[in-house]
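Today's session is about reading a structure prediction critically. Students often jump straight to the picture, but the first step is always the sequence itself: look for stretches that repeat, for charged clusters, for runs of hydrophobic residues. Only then move on to the predicted structure, which in these notes is written as discrete structure tokens rather than atom positions. Here is the chain we will use throughout the hour.
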Amino acid sequence: MATQTDTLTDIEAEVIDIFVRASQVIGLPKSIGEIYGLLFIATGPMSMDQIMEKLRISLGTASQGLKQLRAFRAVKAVYVPGERKDFFTAESEFRKLTAGFFKEEVFPQLENTAERLEVLKPLLQEVPADQADHYRSRIEKIERWQKSGLNLLGKVIKFINF
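Below is the predicted structure for this chain, in token form.
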């Protein structure tokens, strides 16, 4: 039988749904939104066991979700006197949350794109002459997008950090 401590309240469920939808929009798993939403609305720090119980998720899902959220700096481990387990809270400052996401997810992707472009350029020598101009123009377009993305990301991070 479910107790009050292991079932979601209506307000918890609604807030979690907001973050589930937001996480799915940016391509993150539903569980990331669930964990962040629960920690965001929680009245205090929660252990991984409490998170698993409330959300009814597996140890692996909770562990991976918390690991990814910590990498984004969206959650942090906090000390709870008298407890040996790790407890977690959500980062509630929008600029810290978004800056962490951009630095951990978007920036590495843009850097990877630059590396991949360097691999692509020599491959142009291997394509038939009648296709080389097409491929070259597409690679140049990706390169412009990548540079624009880095430029925009720099401005966004600067704006977020004021």
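Discussion point for the tutorial: The CA atoms of residues 129 and 143 lie 21 Å apart.
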